[in-house]
Structure formats: C-alpha cells, structure tokens
Amino acid sequence: MNERVDGRRGEFAIEIRSLTKRFSRFALEDVTLNVKQGYITGLVGANGAGKSTLIKAMLGMSVPLAGEVRLFGEPLAGKEDALKERIGYVADDSHFYEHLSIGAMKSVYAPFYRKWDERLFRRYLERFELSPKATIRSLSKGMKMKLALAFALSHQAELLIMDEPTAGLDPVFRRELLDILAELMLDERQTILFSTHITTDLDRIADYIAFLHQGKLAFHESKEEVFDRYAIVRGDLSLLDADVRRLFVGIRESSVGFEALTSNRMEAERLLAEYARIERASLEDIMYLTAKGVPAHG
Ligand SMILES: Nc1ncnc2c1ncn2[C@@H]1O[C@H](COP(=O)(O)OP(=O)(O)OP(=O)(O)O)[C@@H](O)[C@H]1O
C-alpha cells in the first residue's frame, strides 16, 4: 500500500473540467481531471496523445475551445500571472535565451517571482554542477533540464508541472531527477504533475496515473487501483468467444495465441483462471494494448 495515497487527503491543486481543444488533425476531447494536492501525478500517453496540449491549457498558455481550468481552487482565466507565481514549470523544450550565461538568464527570470530564493537557486546550481558563468548554448540536454529544474524550484512553487522531464536523459540523471522529486514530496504541500511516455518513471514515484489516449482521458486512478484493476491475459485462440472478448480493452492475436488487456481483473479471473494465464499488467502493457484496441469482429 502506498501510505501517501492513503494517509493524506489534499484539496485539488488543478481542476480541469470538460476541456476541449481542437487542432486541424487532433483534438483533446472533453478532458476532466482533478489533480490532488500533496501527491505526484504522472500524465502518461504515447507520442501525440495530447500531453503537452493539456499541460499548456492548464497553464493558460493556450486557450481552449471549451472547458475550464482552476488552479488552487481559483479559475485560471484572468488570473494567469498571479497563479503562475505559485507554479514551477519545466517545459519539454527549453525557453532560455541561448546566448546568455546562466547568471544573466537568472537576472531576466528572477524578477518575475516575488518569492525568488537566490540562495536556494545557488544551491541547486552547485548540486547540479552548473556554473553561473556557463553560456546556455554550451549546455547539454541533460544540463539544460537541470537548469530548468533549478529555476522551477527556486521560487517556492507549490505546484511543479513538468512536460517530459526525463525524455532524452541518461539513466543516471533520470534516476537523480526522480530522487529529487521524491525529496520534494517530503514537503506535504508540494504537488507534482509530470508527463512522460517512459512508464518505468511512474512505476517508481507516481501516486496517481492519468492516462491520455488519442486526446481522451482513458483513466485517472491511484497507481494501486490501476494495478488492481488491469491484468494481462494470455491464452489459446480457441478461448476467444464473444463473451471473453468483451472483457478486453485491447488484444493482440498471433498464430500461437492471444495476449489481451482487461480492465476487469476480477471478472477475467472468474471466467478464465482455469484456462488462461492472468498476470499483473505493467503500465507499458496498458499503454501498448490500449493502443491496439479490440477489433470489431468476434
Ligand atoms: N499548435 C498546434 N497546431 C496544430 N497541431 C498541433 C499543435 N500543437 C500540437 N498539435 C498536434 O496535437 C497532437 C498532440 O500533440 P501533443 O504535443 O500535445 O502530444 P504529446 O502527447 O505531448 O506528444 P509527445 O509525447 O510526442 O510530446 C499532435 O498530433 C500534434 O501534432
């Protein structure tokens, strides 16, 4: 059991109601998502699922077609600047001026935040082995991520939102980043939302998982609930009658048998325990087999 999920009851840091955003070839459709204060929520989804689009909408960086975003209980619309002071944001692409030194970039950035903590910023720079004199252009991808994190963490933000913070990072720094996030959570008021398609990151530290699939929220549950509810079923093709197929949200069939994802583990066990292998689904299984869907026939 995850004590943090069970032991604390937070308000919602982010409330998204019926959010719709349409582009010519993609739509985020009617997404409703409440992110609990005091927990780590992982926003997971394949490339192009709409994670960045949703994050930009929750930061007021893009205007939705319909729906509402509330941060810390207040409507975002019209209060973007005040609310954003309470948020540390790490974008998927760096928003730094490449020609500046870290120190000069800080002089541009810090005045936007009333609670800027210079000592803390310096401490993060030291910890991440970043020299204030280094030019941003000279930094590797991993170093830029560290710098973005140092900025995001140095103005007493209550909510940290990160878009794919681990993408393109080597395993050593990915691990270090996850450790830093776990450390931040020692402060019970801290809330973290981060998007990723690297599901093992979530296995390690997320309390809640929100899964976006083709612009729709497929589920949002505690990690424990997800692992209780979902299972992988493997068996012989002869088992696949219409009733059995109805159990599955995704299926892959081959000449040697089938592999399927159910979101109703108990029912799958009741019907199939004697005839098929039923195992814990990893988040990767869930993403992969949800994308496969269930064919219309059968
Ligand atoms: N400004 C835009 N104009 C048109 N289409 C857009 C725009 N921004 C995003 N899209 C499209 O919306 C879809 C979702 O993009 P988004 O970046 O939100 O996905 P994502 O889940 O963050 O993907 P990734 O993991 O690859 O970063 C993509 O098909 C993308 O091409």
Automatic annotation (TrEMBL):
<keyword id="KW-0547">Nucleotide-binding</keyword>
<dbReference type="InterPro" id="IPR051782">
    <property type="entry name" value="ABC_Transporter_VariousFunc"/>
</dbReference>
<dbReference type="InterPro" id="IPR027417">
    <property type="entry name" value="P-loop_NTPase"/>
</dbReference>
<dbReference type="GO" id="GO:0016887">
    <property type="term" value="F:ATP hydrolysis activity"/>
</dbReference>
<keyword id="KW-0067">ATP-binding</keyword>
<keyword id="KW-0813">Transport</keyword>
<feature type="domain" description="ABC transporter">
    <location>
        <begin position="14"/>
        <end position="239"/>
    </location>
</feature>
<dbReference type="InterPro" id="IPR003439">
    <property type="entry name" value="ABC_transporter-like_ATP-bd"/>
</dbReference>
<dbReference type="Pfam" id="PF00005">
    <property type="entry name" value="ABC_tran"/>
</dbReference>
<dbReference type="InterPro" id="IPR003593">
    <property type="entry name" value="AAA+_ATPase"/>
</dbReference>
<dbReference type="GO" id="GO:0005524">
    <property type="term" value="F:ATP binding"/>
</dbReference>
<protein>
    <submittedName>
        <fullName>ABC transporter ATP-binding protein</fullName>
    </submittedName>
</protein>
